């Protein structure tokens, strides 16, 4: 087995997209943080936290999670009225999917299947297509939505996993056209594959990464869109879309207040007005995360931003109160001018 290190280029440049490798030198949280926001030269990155089981059970869990992600993301690929559950909207979504597939590499029947389920709100039937079709089709949707030709699956392997089962599952997943990169405490025992040593900055414990927010499958948000796995972000976007005063907003855009500060992503922002909205899940209540949030807020406020924080529950249970506070902040900035 060989080990290579190249610190001159980002870590993902050396990792192959056509086979299974073991990554050494960085934890999954570090890898996830380094591709959020997703760099322009990186493949669409998916991070999966594996659970113990047979190879078939592992594959089923991964494919199910990837397919759910594709179901969440397909409205970004085939936009339509997500609130319309009528049979006409369902048929129109399936038609758009077939038309899109006819000029792309998507498999039309499967894409129509996803589009129809997304519009109707009904769960996907896992027996409608072969597992190979579901895996390949779902990954293709995820990559396409991110504007990438390929996707990669980074798998966190628990220490007590069966190495033979992990290896079999990884090889099967890779055979569907997705690069599979193994990491975690159990990865060294899966010695069937070559090792790639990578380097990326360590992520402090008090930084909330995508793998902390979303499990078992995590992925960076699509730039300019609410995170598809966040019900609160999706609802906030839907309501803001009905308000004229909300024009000019950006979702999940990276900002760097100073040349020395690390970049971070704002859930919703109005750059001209310097108003930022952050939506916090339960993990933000932890003391360390709370401190990190306050540090970010202070840095933004020092550079003229208004930062409004809401919990998921605020948005989901009382979005009109949230709308009122956002509108007031924007009105204040627009009437008085934005500080520089």
What does this structure look like?
- The protein has eleven helices and ten strands.
- It has a six-stranded mixed beta sheet with strand order 5-1-4-3-2-6. A four-stranded mixed beta sheet has the order 7-8-9-10, sandwiched between helices.
- Helix 2 (55-77) packs across helix 5.
- The protein is globular and about 65 Å long.
- It has helices at residues 28-34, 55-77, 87-102, 108-120, 131-145, 163-175, 210-213, 231-240, 287-302, 312-317, 319-336, and strands at residues 20-24, 44-49, 151-156, 179-183, 195-197, 217-218, 250-255, 264-270, 275-280, 306-311.
- It is an alpha/beta fold and 340 residues long.
- It is 41% helix and 15% strand.
- It folds into two domains: 11-218, no CATH class; 231-336, Endonuclease, Chain A (3-Layer(aba) Sandwich).
- The model is unreliable at 1-7 and 283-291 (pLDDT under 50).
- InterPro entries: DUF559, Endonuclease_DUF559_bact, Restrct_endonuc-II-like.
- Residues 264-330 form the DUF559 domain.
Number of domains: 2
Q: For the largest beta sheet, what order do the strands appear in spatially? A: 5-1-4-3-2-6
Main β-sheet, in a few words? Answer: 6 strands, mixed
Rg, nearest Å? 21 Å
Q: Quote the distance from N terminus to C terminus.
A: 55 Å
* Strand residues, percent: 15-25%
Kindly state the number of beta strands. Answer: 10
Mean pLDDT over the full residue set: 88
